[in-house]
Amino acid sequence: MEVIRALSRRLLLRLVQPKFAEPKRRVPFLSIEIEQVLRGTKHILITEPMLIEMRPPLIIVGDIHGQYLDLLHIFEMFSTNNRDISSKKKRDDADDNPAGENWNGFICENYLFLGDYVDRGPRQIEVIMLLFVCKILWPRQYGLLRGNHENAITNLAYGFEQELNYRFYDGNALWAQFNNVFAMLPVAARVGRRILCMHGGLSKGMKSLDDIRRLKKTGAQRVRCDARPGSAVERPGAWKRNRYLQPVFRFSKNHKRNAGWLFGENEVRKFCARMKLDLIVRGHQCVQNGFRFFCGRKLLTLFSAPRYAGSGRNIGAVLVVRRDGRLSIRQFRAINGEDPGPDRYNKDYCDGLDDDSNTKTGSSSRASPPPSQPPHLSEKLPG
């Protein structure tokens, strides 16, 4: 494992070099290096439960979808030059920095990612490799959840397999190995015992957090999208006006995607009360302002891929959970120069661009502030 850690340090330094941050299809690593990183990541993930526990302070990041420059921008926002949530003293829980390197934003804070790292974007391999390298170097600081695109059936259809084959002669073999590692990712995380995070949302059969803990990690080819809390839910049905969906008060089948369930305010309130939660945080759904509240701010949708799939209309956001439990949202715009990806993905995937501004989601219909003026919620969690 020490050999893989040493390789990961070298790859991290390579990945953040300016020449590899250019919007080119340059390959900053070899197939054998990818295989070693996958081996090291799987070695760590296989020991993690399906429901991981994390503690504040930390940054919660929504869908990335191969937007590498925007991922680097997130780390830059929380670098040593832009400290936001940690104390001024050096963190005492950083796992490994034996050479004393300046890793900038990578170990300044804890990070929790909600899934959907690959597909649709132009730099999917760089995104997932950067996150896996960080997981190897600082396993306690980085929580990586599984999204519905970390699934062989999905990422075969939406671009990940194609990008691997375009950039590597052994792309099919690498694609299979990536999906074997994806199958080891946890599906949910609890932050400070009061915030529950997952990719998609609530599952109809989930009655307690033990239901998540009891889930078994399965092989890549056996995973079903509707078998896991998180990726099993399309969206709360009350988010769309009735011309699209009737209001959902309990659970209703998601006929739009033919997978998963829709859920409404009643289920969110009951679940939060039963689990003693203050907030549920999910990704999975592109929203115009990068975030959207639902059910009296009991549920938050977070999306961190600005200008998603070349739409040019949404901005990204991350959730900051401070040490004392206060919450704030940092919004940011897309980094100029990134290729939006293949033409077949350049369509409007975002919700809330036209008809959701007056729904009960808690999001504002006014123009979003620039990244230098984030809207601070300043909400302290009770207890």
UniProtKB/TrEMBL annotation:
Key words of the record: Hydrolase
Pfam entry (one): Metallophos
Xref: InterPro entries: Calcineurin-like_PHP, Metallo-depent_PP-like, PP1_catalytic_subunit, Ser/Thr-sp_prot-phosphatase
GO CC aspect terms: cytoplasm; nucleus
EC number of this enzyme: 3.1.3.16
Origin superkingdom: Eukaryota
Coiled-coil region(s): none
Region ranges (Disordered): 338-383
Catalytic activity from the UniProt record: O-phospho-L-threonyl-[protein] + H2O = L-threonyl-[protein] + phosphate
Biased composition (Basic and acidic residues): 341-350
SUPFAM superfamilies recorded: Metallo-dependent phosphatases
GO molecular function, one term: protein serine/threonine phosphatase activity
Annotated Serine/threonine specific protein phosphatases domain residues: 145-150
Enzyme class: hydrolase
Hydrolase recorded as keyword: yes
Protein family according to the UniProt entry: Belongs to the PPP phosphatase family.
PANTHER family attached to this UniProt entry: SERINE/THREONINE PROTEIN PHOSPHATASE, SERINE_THREONINE-PROTEIN PHOSPHATASE
Name of the protein described by the UniProt record: Serine/threonine-protein phosphatase
The species this protein was found in: Mesorhabditis spiculigera
